[in-house]
Fold this sequence. Notes:
Layout: H1 3-12, H2 16-38, H3 41-58, H4 68-85, H5 117-129, H6 132-143, H7 148-155, H8 159-183
Helix pairs in contact: 1-2, 2-3, 2-4, 2-6, 3-4, 5-8, 6-8, 7-8
Amino acid sequence: MNETEAIRLCLVHRDPRGFEFLVSAYRREALFHATGLLGDVTDAADACQDCFAKAFASLPRLETLDTFYPWFYRILRNHCLNLLAKGKVRRAHVQDQQTDPAAGLEERSPYHMAEEAEDRQVVITALEEITAEHREILAMKYFQDLRYAEIAETLGIPRGTVMSRLYAARKAFRSAYEAVHSHHPSPEGATHAGL
C-alpha cells in the first residue's frame, strides 16, 4: 500500500486500514513536530493522539486529499498552539525528563552544541525561551533538514515567508541563547552554539 491508496481507502471506502497506514507512516514525524512546538515529549504524544483522532473523524467530510501530512500538520499545529495559548502544557526541563527530544540530534544540528551537558542545557533552555513558531521552523530546517519548499508545503506558506520566518527565528534564538548563556556560562573551552 502507498499513501495514495491509503487516502483513497479512507475517502472512498471509509476503510480504517488506510488510516492505520497513514498513522504508521507519519506518527514519528508528527511527534517530532509536536515536541518542537510544545517542548515536552509527553504533551506532544498526547497532542498527536488527539490530532490523529480528529483527523480520522474529519476525513469523511473531505472530497479530495492529495497528500496527507500537510493537511494533518495544520490540524496538529493549530491544536498545539491552542494548548500553548491556554497554558495546558508543562515546561519540562531536560534534567527532569527520562526522554530528551533533543538527545542524539546534536550531531545533525547546526547549533554546534558542545559536548558538555551544561552547554546543551543552555541551548535547550534558549529554545524554550523563543516562541513556538520559531522553535517549529528551526526544528524543521535544522533538526529535520527539510528544504524550504518542503517547509512551505507543510506549513502552507510561500517559500519567501519560510525564509523570512527562519531569519526571525535565528535572530530570536541567538538573542535567547546569549541571554541564557550570560547567566549560565559554559565551562572553559566549551564551544558556543550558533546558527
